[in-house]
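Supplementary material to the annual report.
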Amino acid sequence: MNRAFWLYLGVLVTVVASFMGLVQIPDHQLRGLEPVTDEQGVERPVRPEGGVLAGRQEYIGLGCLYCHSQQVRPEGFGSDIARGWGMRRTVARDHVWDAPPVLGTMRTGPDLANIAVRQPSAAWHLLHLYKPRLTSPGSLMPEYPFLFTEQRVELERPADALSFPTGDPRPGWVIVPTQRARDLVAYLGSLDHSYPVPEVRP
Amino acid sequence: MSGVSTVPNGSADGPRQELLARAAIDRSCRAPVLLFAGSAVLWLLVGSVWALLAAVKMHTPGLLTSWEPLTFGRVRPVHLNMTIFGWASMSGIAVLLWLQARLARARLPFPNLLIAGGVVWNLALAAGVWEISAGHGTSVEWIEIPLFWALVFAAVFAVVMAASLTMFARRNVAHVYVSQWYLFGAVLWFPFLYLMANALIHAGFTRGVTAAATNWWFAHNVLGLWLTPIGLATIYYLIPKVIGAPIHSYHLSLLGFWSLALFYNWAGTHHLIGGPLPAWLVTVGIVGSVMMFVPVVTVGINHHMTMVGHFHRLADSPTLRFVVFAGMSYTVVSVQGSLTSLRSINEINHFTHYTVAHAHLGVYAFFSMAMFGALYYVLPRLTGREWSSARLIKVHFWASAAGIALYWGPLTVGGWLQGLAMNNPDVPFLEVMTGTVSWLWGRTAAGALMTVGHLVFAWLVARMLLSREPAPAVAAGPEPAGEGA
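Predicted assembly:
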């Protein structure tokens, strides 16, 4: 093969073709997707703002997606729905606000697409982040001690101090979540894709 | 299509002139290629440390949790970026430049620019993994390094591309050898993929699940259109070179190249099977993956049939041993990849350690082994020195070969069992998780063995590059031995 021209052309055409096919056409197809409005007149998915958005950034910066997916596979494909990870499969519309979405490709830990529905308690999440094996014995999740500070109890216990089932690890001291921990938990509390969408029949 | 070429650098020149020209070409490559190769080996070592740390953290999550940069979610992407953009890409560039120079019989142009590029690449990667460690990573797999540093990589890559294409344009041979098609593809494909993916995902031109499609179009093509063509070009060059016999079939190599160019591109969305994307988009990815049987089978026949009758040479040529191992792994990993894209199989292996094992089979058993083999061949020719210990090269080979086999086999089984358990809603999720622990310990042991191989390799390379003895003049003498050239 000695005709460099055909080599140039072939090499460029093949890669541009796949770019059009796998990137441009889907972009064109999905660009017009809008959130749905539920019975209460609330736009779903809710556009992440403030603490939720900051928490999403924590989720990204801490690399949570290397162990947690955020996509429920359809009925009959895997057992995501039977496990209670969602009422319906995840659709493209669920991620209209996300640039980029954190779908994840690994489930060392469980799927989090609907974690807000499954585990709405912020106190549970904070304790879980501080010592995962307290709430979930045998879990392989690492602790995130740097998202918390240890404070001496002066007069009264701070309202947001973690309450441990077996009492404070160090008497006279309490563990208090940082703003980052609260943002992350606010983000987890926003992960609710249980609203109906036209793409999936109930 | 004139000049059907099945031997790299089949020559009509007299041997003396041939050797002089070759020595001049090698001299022109010396500094830039040694810089990229030496840096690659350093990144391999650091990348192995982060790999082991990530592996241990998977079964012993309480280890080193209080210092944020060492949390698992950062150690893992730091490992990936060090090994892909440090070890794999830098060794790939070193081998690519040398191969292109040898095959085009042209001197390596812009040596100073390439040296500066190598230094900048190292700095950009160091900055990139620093940013990930500091929490500024993007969590977009394979594009974790923030946009600014990605643009620096792209600028260096422009120099590599210019050097490679300049040599191709100045080629002093009548025919274009099959390895050159792949190298040509690699230097044009990668910058396009890298810039497009970064622009679309990180510069905000796309949002929602299109970003996920773009992500996997890119990430799969890092292996498919960047590392694979360099790996295959290396194997196509070194097998016939070492055994002194032509490639089995020219026509098969033609078919293998163009079918790869046509199909590999499209395979990436198989990473999103079951995900929230239009069904057709995922189906296209599956079709592309299954069609990969065509290039894989043709390349496989071509490599393996070339070796038939020459297997005894594996005993005396370390390069051949690594490269043939790489070629065989390419067949295995590609067949596994095509099968894994089928919905019925993907339903089980998706989201498990099976995929991690598969990725290592591709990047390590195929690509890295090809690069080890190539560096064992190239470095003596550039330094004029011999490898200091044949026994240590053997230790490296067996540590790496046994290491990746012990990594891939058990983790594949463990991942498959993990998938079966996950798809059975009667098994509580915590049990799915704890069921993986013994397999994860096995992975750590295998990774430690691979790291032993890397330490031995780095020791050998360091002795060659840092030796205080003056290198014998690389003039018109016969090529340094170690390999039949």
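The domain at 49-189 of chain A is CATH 1.10.760.10 (Cytochrome Bc1 Complex; Chain D, domain 2).
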